[in-house]
Amino acid sequence: MISAEDRARAADLLARFRAAGAQMVETPILQPAGALLDLYGEDIRARAFTTQDPLAGEMMLRPDFTVPVVQAHMENGAEPARYCYAGEVFRRQEVDEGRPREYLQVGYEAFDRDDPAGADAEVFDLLSQAVSAAAPVAATGDLGVLIAAVDALTTSDRRRAALRRHIWRPTRFRRLIDRFTGTTPTPATRATLLAQLADTPAETLIAAAGPAVGLRDRAEIAARLNALAEDAATEPITRTEADVIDSLLSLDTTMTLAIPPLRDMGVDLPGLGPAADRLEARAEALARRGHDPAALSFAPARGRTAMEYYDGFVFTLSAPGRPDLPPLATGGRYDALTAVLGRGRSIPAVGGVVRPGLLGRL
User: Fold this and answer.
1) Residues 60, 337: Cα–Cα separation, whole Å
2) Which of 29, 84, 218, 251 could make an S-S bridge to 17, C-beta 3.0–4.6 Å?
3) Nearest to 249 by CA among 331, 145, 336, 176
4) In angstroms, rounded to a whole number, what is the distance separating the alpha carbons of residues 66 and 275?
5) How does this polypeptide assemble, per the annotation (predicted)?
């Protein structure tokens, strides 16, 4: 149950965000599932409360506000725009996790194409001030750096797409890198299949296998087999480029100290140059708001297990000495999400949320 004290904290936070220039918005507690649920990623999909409505189809209790707010903005919002909101979100939890299934979120979202770095700093600063009484520990990242590195790899479009799809799944991403560099051997069963495909068309192998079992038809199976054969013929990702990926995954320093090595890595993966420029611009914008980038923890791969719609700057603000608590506030950039929900239109966007219930436990 959400206490009156938590609702009062939420009201105070909402007033702060409105004073910063945000327009108050509300979203229905019951949201359409389907395509919207896919945007959240595996973790939230597994934790969403879903139900079937005879008229509206599959629905879900609101797991967060960002996706419906973005959807509403892309349908009829002016730009630039700032929005704020407060209300309950719902997530299924394991029995022994001890986390609430229903809790309050208060958030702030900025849609602004003129100065993305400034908008990043604006949201970080506003949420930092909102939880400043807790003296939070800040940690930042930038998934856009890792995405830029993947896009710059000298390999096939199919391999780059697979790596991008699994950036938010660290174990699968690692397995793909090892496979695409030839570090791990081809499984024996796949090697046998590939040897057969080298001499026999996929359609012939499928016909010889007997009746089809499962949901895929013969054309889909043939396409998959041909894709495997094409991938097997693709040259491995070079050790030099793979080392850059490894360096990015392990880099954990301050925002200021991260910029020079990123520029050095850009010699081997030129796509990292613009990503380093964006990071430097963000560091300067944060400094103008009184945050020292030389003291801000930064790791490019941070946030990979958070919302899958984050594709750039990410941050957390955590209570010091309380590893038992989730972050008090989190946020990030989600430019690609606006393009998905805008059906061809897009606008750079960044936002963050505070959990007032956690503030009451400090």
Assistant:
1) 19
2) 84
3) 145
4) 24
5) Homodimer.
d(CA 270, CA 182): 23
Q: How far apart are the first and last CA of the chain?
A: 18
Binding-site residue set for L-histidine: 64-66, 91, 105, 109, 302, 309-310
- Residue 34: CA atoms inside 13 Å, Cβ hemisphere, count? 10
Q: Are 67 and 309 in contact (CB under 8 A)?
A: yes
Compute the half-sphere exposure of residue 291: CA atoms within 13 Å on the CB side of its CA: 29
Name the nearest CA neighbour of 324 among 140, 98, 43: 98
Specify the long-range contacts of residues 14-18, CB closer than 8 Å, at least 24 apart: 14/84, 14/85, 14/86, 14/106, 16/126, 16/129, 16/130, 17/84, 17/106, 17/107, 17/108, 17/126, 17/130, 18/84
Q: For 78, list phi and psi in degrees, rounded to 5.
A: -85, 170
Class of domain 1-134+337-362: alpha beta
Fill in the DSSP letter of residue 89: E
Q: What does the buried/exposed string (b/e) look like for 75-103 if buried means 16 or more CB atoms within 10 Å of the residue's CB?
A: eebeeebbbbbbbebbbeeeeeeeebeeb
Domain boundaries, the chain: 1-134+337-362, 157-232
pLDDT along the chain (362 residues), means of 10: 90 96 93 76 74 80 90 87 94 68 93 95 98 96 96 94 92 93 84 76 75 75 79 89 96 97 94 94 98 97 82 95 93 92 89 94 83
CA dihedral 179, 181, 186, 190 (to 10 degrees): 70
CA distance 63 to 65: 7
Return the amino acid letter for 241: E
Residue 361's SS3 state is coil
Pick from 310, 317, 315: nearest CA to 349: 310
pTM: predicted TM-score of the whole model, two decimal places: 0.89
